[in-house]
């Protein structure tokens, strides 16, 4: 598939403001490093997609461990984190975390203030699409990154539609640049 | 009861004074008062009458907007870019635009039900008798129409009495719709208040529709033991001529059954239904059968099993006629709202219409007389069936394999599929002769057919999927209890106390369409989970069908395993979409019958009671339509939270509470007037759950209410914690917000929970007599 700003679900056209394409994964790592208060939001598909050797949840854990980024596990996926020995994920419905991130007064999971960067992965495409839209329009200082292997136009930055192999290569670079192994 | 528009017309009237010709006499309104209860504060509320109540709800449950796109394109000023804090040429911002879209959706939904009710009432008054008494449960029901009594303040006794309420609903929807015009409303919260108003009048419209059809057509009357009917592809003997009815408005289907009965043809023709018309025709006749929910349309039409299709209104595929033509099945359209471009043959002689349909001279006919639909449908199907010989366009296995070998795996089908089903991968397997992956897709397919439209090779992919799963599909036959209608007053008396005190942990209403993320089996699973936990499980519409489509090891469906009574552990199908007010009505009757709150035009107080005391939650797991939106909003205004499935996030707005903001969760103690923290009960008014696991945990949690007794709260906490631990593998992190005193703690978890409370620096709180309405505070002695 070509490198285009083309939504994965064909009819989910967004705009005028659309996600910038992540063409170099190193840029994501740099943005995470630069962020004062980053957060990873992980949906239930993270434990199901994309293949046995490339599960999103495992990369989320590696990123969190490498860069000390807190994780919010939506739906029931917290149980999958626990199975993998990762016990620090906060569990919260996707709508709840979306709502809180849209609130510039929210003090965050730890009470230390609002987040400035939220990385999303593993939510159903269309659900992530509308939550990212809510954040695009109603959050004031938050930037969002979609780390799924599909272009999600309401994020601030998103991968283009990628093959599993290309996605895995990209996400490996991000984890490595963050100091993970 | 007040009556409007008494109109007398006399052609010739001779008196001592003289001869009067063409005398017409109109009398404005006659007031006949037969209801002893005094009129409440808000009869026939206008669009701002209950605004204060709405704002109380919206202050706690704030909208979280989820725009589909950045623009507004509703007028020629536009398109306007509303991104972020931009405003359009009319001055509207994104929040108001989103709430405006929600209001539009709810107006569409409410108008649909109200127009449905208008048609039914007028048709029934014309065909039967304007004075037919309303009867939804004989001696078992005194409050025949709790929603209409509550909203309008009228007690309808006869069919004709429903007209005042209908007229009221029509007026309200017109006002509400007008508020969506450019340059009308400018505040998102005022749009939201109007959304709640649309939902409330929608409930009245639906109640009128079901009240009329139950009373006149002899549907089950609040019967916990309403009969079981057959559902599925194998429910009917399709070797016979088969008529398929699709839609929601039953008179034309009744016309078919009546004609078959009159002509002694019952048993010689099969009548099967899809969607809510199927519900209502099985409430009318045991001869009718159900194919399945809304999403079964394409697969059934293409299978060729139906020899003739009759459509009425709502939720019918817009391409039903196109699809029917492919299998040479004539179509009769029977509703002015859904004419399908067909010629109106209502006034033509039946023989001529039948002949044209049988000879294939026309693909279908518009017939706006239900009795004539009955005659034409039956006589046509008897002649067409032998000619059609069940002609099907479902391809042969060899054809699928051949086409699959030409599939380029371009992914367009998958990208068009709402559930991202792996069709390309399944086609790759099919190319090698393995159709099992395609058959697996059928299990979760919502039957939209977007894969067909997307395929650049024009492969009929949906038909491939149906063929792959055909062997199983053709064997499927399930039992579903037909819609029972209302809840009996005596049932309310029996369970009102345990529900309000929290000892029955909740009432769960599984309702709505079939736009499921992972098939209908999840609905069955959720229903059974909560029935086993001794909740009261109520259902209607397509959800009621989906939950029938799973059998246990003994071959039984949940309708065969659980009683149909409104009691702990019951699973009750109330009926079609328009039966939903029986669920709202049960909550209202708990306030009225059990708690003896005044019902008549007393909306705010009853809603306040329900919000604070009745642990009821709605789950519309496959909600798709604008009607589902308005149904949900009717429940919100009444204080009943609603959860939708993940596709429901596309309704573009949630109403979410914030449990981390303490000041949002204060109520008045009606005994003392003090403001008291009661915890986030219920936490949300409208939210979308990502998975069935999340939905189940949310259901248990959203059943908690400020008024729960300690015993009741302990029961509810037990279910919440148990489900959370089982499905999430951890304890909930918010238990401290729901434990008010140590007696609330489930005894079996006491040590574990006490440790959590200590860590959270929990402090004991009281249990008030909760209300959000200052006027309900009772003065204490000495004041």
Condensed summary:
Chain A contains 6 helices and 9 strands; from the N terminus they run E-H-E-E-E-H-E-H-E-H-E-H-E-E-H. Chain A has 181 residues and is an alpha/beta fold.
* Average predicted local confidence, pLDDT of chain A: 95
* Count of extended strands of chain A: 9
What does the main sheet of chain B amount to? Answer: 6 strands, parallel
Q: Can you tell me the CATH topology of the domain at 35-217 in chain B?
A: Helicase, Ruva Protein, domain 3
Examine the secondary-structure arrangement and name the CATH architecture of the domain at 35-217 in chain B: Orthogonal Bundle
> What count of structural domains of chain A?
1
What profile does the largest beta sheet of chain A have?
Answer: 7 strands, parallel
Order of helices and strands of chain A: EHEEEHEHEHEHEEH
In the CATH hierarchy, what is the superfamily of chain A? Answer: TPP-binding domain
Q: Briefly, what CATH class of chain A?
A: Alpha Beta
Instruction: Using the alpha-carbon principal axes, give the shape of chain A.
Output: globular
Class based on secondary structure composition and strand pairing of chain A = alpha/beta
What fraction of residues of chain A sit in β-strands?
5-15%
Envelope shape of chain B: globular
Q: Quote the distance from N terminus to C terminus of chain A.
A: 29 Å
Side-by-side strand order of the widest sheet of chain B? 9-8-7-10-11-12
Q: What is the CATH first-level class name of the domain at 35-217 in chain B?
A: Mainly Alpha
The CATH topology of chain A is given as Rossmann fold
Residue ranges of chain A: pLDDT <50 for 5 or more in a row? none
- The count of DSSP E runs of length 2 or more, i.e. the number of strands of chain B, is 23
Biggest interface goes to: A-B, 42 and 45 residues
List the helices and strands and how they pair.
The complex is a heterodimer of chains A (181) and B (783).
Chain A: E1 20-21, H1 25-34, E2 38-42, E3 50-51, E4 54-55, H2 56-67, E5 71-73, H3 78-83, E6 90-91, H4 94-101, E7 117-121, H5 125-138, E8 143-146, E9 157-158, H6 164-177
Helix pairs in contact in A: 1-6, 2-6, 4-5
Chain B: E1 2-14, E2 19-31, H1 51-60, E3 62-65, E4 71-72, E5 80-81, H2 94-127, H3 146-152, H4 162-178, H5 188-217, E6 228-231, E7 242-246, H6 251-262, E8 270-274, H7 276-284, E9 288-292, H8 297-303, E10 308-311, H9 320-326, E11 331-333, H10 350-358, E12 364-366, H11 370-388, H12 397-404, H13 412-416, H14 423-431, H15 436-444, H16 450-454, H17 461-468, H18 470-473, E13 478-481, H19 489-501, E14 507-510, H20 521-532, E15 536-540, H21 541-546, H22 558-561, E16 571-575, H23 581-594, H24 603-613, E17 616-620, H25 626-637, E18 642-644, E19 653-656, E20 666-669, E21 675-677, E22 686-688, H26 692-702, H27 710-728, H28 750-759, E23 770-771
Parallel strand pairs in B: 7-8, 7-10, 8-9, 10-11, 11-12, 14-15, 14-17, 15-16, 17-18, 18-22
Antiparallel strand pairs in B: 1-2, 3-19, 4-5, 6-13, 20-21, 20-23
């Amino acid at each position: 598939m070509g490198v285009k700003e083309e939504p994965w679900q064909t009819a989910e056209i967004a705009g005028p403001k659309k996600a910038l394409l992540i063409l170099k994964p190193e840029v994501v790592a740099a943005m995470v490093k630069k962020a004062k208060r980053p957060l990873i939001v992980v949906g239930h598909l993270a434990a199901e997609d994309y293949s046995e050797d490339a599960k999103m949840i495992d990369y989320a854990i590696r990123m969190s461990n490498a860069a000390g980024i807190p994780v919010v596990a939506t739906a029931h996926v917290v149980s999958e984190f626990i199975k993998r020995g990762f016990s620090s994920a906060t569990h919260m419905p996707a709508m709840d975390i979306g709502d809180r991130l849209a609130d510039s007064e929210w003090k965050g999971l730890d009470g230390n203030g609002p987040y400035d960067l939220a990385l999303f992965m593993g939510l159903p495409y269309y659900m992530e699409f509308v939550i990212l839209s809510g954040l695009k329009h109603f959050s004031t200082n938050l930037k969002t990154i979609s780390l799924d292997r599909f272009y999600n136009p309401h994020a601030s930055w998103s991968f283009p539609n990628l093959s599993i192999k290309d996605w895995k290569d990209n996400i490996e670079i991000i984890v490595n640049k963050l100091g993970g192994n | 009861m007040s009556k409007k528009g008494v109109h007398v017309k006399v052609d010739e009237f001779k008196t001592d004074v003289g001869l009067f010709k063409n005398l017409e006499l109109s009398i404005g309104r006659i007031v006949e008062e037969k209801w002893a209860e005094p009129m409440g504060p808000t009869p026939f509320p206008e669009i701002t009458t209950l605004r204060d109540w709405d704002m109380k709800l919206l202050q706690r449950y704030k909208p979280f907007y989820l725009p589909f796109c950045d623009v507004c394109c509703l007028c020629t000023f536009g398109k306007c870019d509303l991104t972020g804090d931009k405003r359009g040429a009319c001055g509207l911002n994104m929040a108001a635009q989103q709430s405006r879209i929600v209001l539009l959706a709810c107006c569409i939904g409410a108008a649909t039900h109200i127009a449905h009710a208008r048609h039914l009432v007028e048709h029934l008054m014309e065909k039967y008798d304007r004075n037919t008494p309303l009867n939804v449960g004989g001696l078992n029901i005194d409050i025949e129409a709790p929603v209409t009594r509550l909203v309008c303040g009228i007690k309808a006794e006869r069919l004709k009495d429903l007209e005042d309420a209908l007229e009221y609903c029509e007026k309200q929807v017109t006002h509400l719709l007008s508020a969506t015009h450019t340059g009308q409303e400018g505040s998102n919260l005022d749009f939201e208040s109007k959304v709640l108003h649309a939902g409330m009048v929608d409930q009245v419209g639906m109640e009128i529709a079901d009240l009329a059809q139950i009373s006149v057509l002899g549907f089950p009357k609040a019967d916990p033991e309403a009969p079981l009917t057959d559902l599925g592809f194998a429910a009917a003997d399709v070797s016979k001529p088969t008529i398929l009815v699709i839609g929601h408005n039953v008179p034309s289907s009744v016309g078919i059954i009546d004609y078959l009965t009159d002509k002694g043809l019952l048993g010689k023709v099969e009548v099967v239904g899809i969607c809510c018309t199927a519900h209502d025709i099985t409430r009318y006749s045991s001869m009718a059968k159900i194919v399945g929910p809304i999403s079964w349309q394409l697969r059934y039409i293409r299978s060729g099993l139906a020899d003739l299709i009759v459509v009425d209104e709502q939720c019918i595929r817009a391409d039903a006629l196109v699809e029917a033509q492919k299998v040479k099945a004539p179509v009769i359209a029977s509703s002015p709202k859904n004419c399908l471009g067909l010629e109106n043959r209502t006034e033509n002689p039946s023989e001529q219409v039948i002949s044209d349909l049988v000879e294939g001279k026309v693909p279908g006919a518009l017939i706006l007389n239900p009795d004539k639909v009955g005659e034409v449908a039956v006589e046509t199907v008897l002649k067409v069936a032998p000619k059609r010989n069940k002609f099907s366009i479902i391809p042969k296995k060899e054809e699928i394999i051949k086409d699959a070998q030409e599939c380029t795996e371009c992914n367009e089908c998958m990208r068009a599929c709402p559930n991202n089903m792996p069709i390309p991968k399944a086609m790759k397997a099919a190319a090698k002769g393995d159709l099992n992956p395609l058959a697996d897709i059928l299990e979760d397919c919502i039957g939209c057919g977007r894969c067909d439209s997307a395929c650049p090779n024009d492969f009929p992919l949906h038909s491939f999927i149906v063929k792959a799963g055909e062997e199983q599909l053709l064997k499927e036959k399930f039992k579903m209890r037909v819609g029972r209608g209302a809840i009996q007053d005596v049932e309310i008396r029996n369970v009102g106390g345990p529900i309000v005190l929290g000892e029955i942990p909740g009432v769960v209403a599984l309702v709505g369409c079939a736009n499921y993320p992972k098939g209908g089996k999840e609905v069955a699973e959720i229903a059974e989970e909560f029935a086993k936990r001794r909740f009261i499980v109520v259902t209607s519409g397509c959800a009621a069908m989906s939950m029938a489509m799973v059998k246990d090891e003994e071959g039984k469906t949940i309708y065969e395993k659980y009683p149909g009574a409104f009691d702990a552990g019951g699973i009750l199908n109330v009926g079609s979409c328009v039966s939903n007010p029986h669920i709202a009505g049960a909550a209202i009757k708990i306030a009225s019958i059990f708690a003896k709150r005044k019902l008549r035009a007393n909306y705010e107080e009853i809603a306040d009671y329900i919000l604070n005391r009745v642990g009821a939650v709605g789950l519309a797991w496959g909600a798709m339509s604008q009607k589902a939106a308005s149904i949900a909003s009717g429940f919100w205004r009444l204080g009943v939270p609603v959860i939708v499935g993940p596709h429901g996030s596309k309704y573009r707005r949630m109403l979410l509470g914030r449990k981390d903001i303490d000041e949002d969760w204060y109520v008045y103690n009606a005994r003392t007037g003090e403001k008291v923290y009661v915890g986030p009960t219920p936490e949300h008014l409208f939210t979308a759950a990502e998975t069935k696991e999340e939905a189940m945990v949310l259901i248990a949690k959203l059943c908690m209410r400020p008024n729960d007794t300690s015993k009741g709260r302990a029961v509810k906490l037990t279910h919440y914690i148990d489900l959370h631990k089982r499905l999430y593998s951890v304890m909930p992190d918010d238990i401290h917000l729901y434990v008010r005193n140590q007696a609330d703690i489930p005894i079996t978890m006491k040590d574990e929970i006490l440790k959590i409370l200590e860590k959270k620096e929990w402090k004991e709180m009281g249990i008030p007599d909760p209300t959000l309405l200052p006027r309900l505070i009772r003065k204490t002695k000495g004041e």
